[in-house]
Amino acid sequence: MGLDGLEDKVFDAVLFDMDGTLVDSTAAVYRAWAAWAVEHGVPADLMRGHDGIPAASIVAKFLPEADREAGILRINELELNDTGGLVVLPGAAEALAALVDAPSAIATSCTMPLARARIASSGLRAPSVLVTADQVEHGKPAPDPYLLAAERLGVDPTRCLVVEDAPLGLQAARAAGCATLAVVTTTARDELRADAIVGDLSEVRFEAGADGIRVRPAV
User: Fold this and answer.
1) Does the keyword Hydrolase apply (predicted)?
2) Burial level of 134, CB count in 10 A (0-12/13-18/19+)?
3) Which of the residues 19, 24, 51, 165 is marked catalytic?
């Protein structure tokens, strides 16, 4: 398996999305949004297809401006109270472990409380840099989360590799000038636009050295 040239590059940092990339929180997310939809009179089938989009942006799509603040508080409450069934995706723990002493970060569309709750539930050893939707003016697909992650690591975003599962997250990474590695965990392969695409993180390994970070095929 090749990585379409990514294996020939050296990166200063790796920036990970969280939901759908490191952990599968799909069941909990759908439960929370299904309950929210019932409470707000929104057809449940309209709640799908928002992978990688901050909750505030989803709420804004369905509620008038006067009701949005309360709607955001409610979905945050529902999600914080339901982290059951969260699954660590294949290769995620190994990827984070390989980069424990190298520049890396998580940039997620969750809020900080929800991100911390899901990380704690997963048992993953997360990077010290965690960028969440409530820390940036514009969430994905805007580049802000990945630009802030690179800034906090003190690296040039064009020297970063972003690992993502969602088209809008990959759009954010490209807008930030980052290289992209997509995992086929939530979205069909033909809907993903990235420098390289793998099934999940078990198909690659990260090597951190004095000159930077490389990504290699696992076998």
Assistant:
1) yes
2) middle
3) 19
